[in-house]
Amino acid sequence: MLRSVQRVAQLSHHFKSRTPIDKISNLSILSNTKKMSHLFEDGTPAEVKNAKGLHLITMNTPNGQKVQIMLEELHEVYGTEWTQTFINIMTNEQKKDWFLRLDPNGRIPVIVDHTQSPPFPVMETSAELLYLLKFADKNDVFGFKDELERSQALQWLFFWHGSGAPYQGQVNHFAKFAKEKIPYAIDRFRNETLRVYGVLEIQLSGKYTGSPREYLAGEGKGKYSVADIGTWPWVKGWEFSGFSQEDMKPFPHLLKWIERIAERPAVKRGIGEKYQQK
Q1: What is the DSSP letter of 179?
Q2: CB neighbours of 220 closer than 8 A, spacing ≥ 6?
Q3: What is the pLDDT of residues 132-151, one digit of tens each?
Q4: How far apart are CA 157 and CA 217, in angstroms?
Q5: Are strands 82-86 and 110-113 parallel, antiparallel or unpaired?
Q6: Cα 63 to Cα 76: distance, rounded to the nearest angstrom
Q7: What sign does the CA torsion over 203, 207, 210, 214 have?
Q8: Of 243, 245, 239, residue with least CA distance to 262
Q9: Hey, which residues does 22 pair with through a beta bridge?
Q10: How far is CA 247 from CA 191, 229, 241, 243, 250, in A?
Q11: Phi, psi dihedrals of residue 83, rounded to the nearest 5°
């Protein structure tokens, strides 16, 4: 009898000493809360901090439009939902601590994915497009399952990210916004942007393959993909950047590509009134 009582006592002590499930759960919550604490501060807008799913922080600029269009396209195919916060980059809101916690580079747009635990911030437009492709486009409607086609899409996406947007952005800065107009800087970035347009024209015209294309990546005439979504919002603004019809004459296939993509309903929504700040 004594042995039985002792054994019960030992078992009771054993189970009491183990961490209960609810304690494990509480520890997990505390851990995630601690991880979240570096993402948000008192100055973080409530709609960013308390969002329940995908949340986009944006402004209706070419970079903002890349992700806006991608989300609109995903909504059309899968019913993808998200919420959004608009900021005005002209007031340097993106340089405040609450924003820099999410993107230390201080650039829009930023995605905060609250479906992850803790919430997961994504910066840099090409990375954001690829993140949405991975987690929200299960059928690769805007990507490719074939590895070589996928590589081609990445090549053109990165080409514009690294060799196109920076040049056209500098054209806009020096020709439109800089207090001092520096002819050398304006000419250099204008010429480089036109050169990059020429690279896109080579791909779309099929100059070296003999087969014109409708889109930047994919077999045959290509398929509308993240490569196009990541490039089009900048290139379609060629007039805003100060280029004339005469400047654009060498790029007929590029101009047709601009028009072709502009007709997509999701593209119209992605740059439209929904994203105009009141």
Answers
A1: S
A2: 211, 213
A3: 999 999 999 999 999 999 99
A4: 9
A5: unpaired
A6: 21
A7: positive
A8: 239
A9: none
A10: 10, 23, 11, 6, 7
A11: -115, 170
**Roughly what angle, to the nearest 10 degrees, separates helices 165-172 and 183-205?**
140
- Within the chain, strands assigned E span 54-58, 82-86, 110-113, 120-122
Q: Looking at the DSSP assignment, which residues form a beta bridge with residue 137?
A: none
- Length in residues, the chain: 278
How many C-beta atoms lie closer than 10 Å to residue 117's C-beta? 13
Rounded distance, CA 46 to CA 55, Å? 12
Distance CA 24, CA 200 (A): 55
Surface-to-core class of residue 199, CB atoms within 10 Å of its CB (0-12 exposed, 13-18 middle, 19+ buried): middle
pLDDT per residue as tens digits for the range 249-274: 999 999 999 999 999 999 999 999 99
CA-CA distances (angstroms) from residue 246 to 2, 34, 107?
A: 102, 58, 33
Confidence of residue 1 (pLDDT cuts 50, 70, 90): very low
Q: Tell me the torsion sign for CA atoms 100, 102, 104, 107.
A: negative
Q: How far apart are CA 204 and CA 169, in angstroms?
A: 23
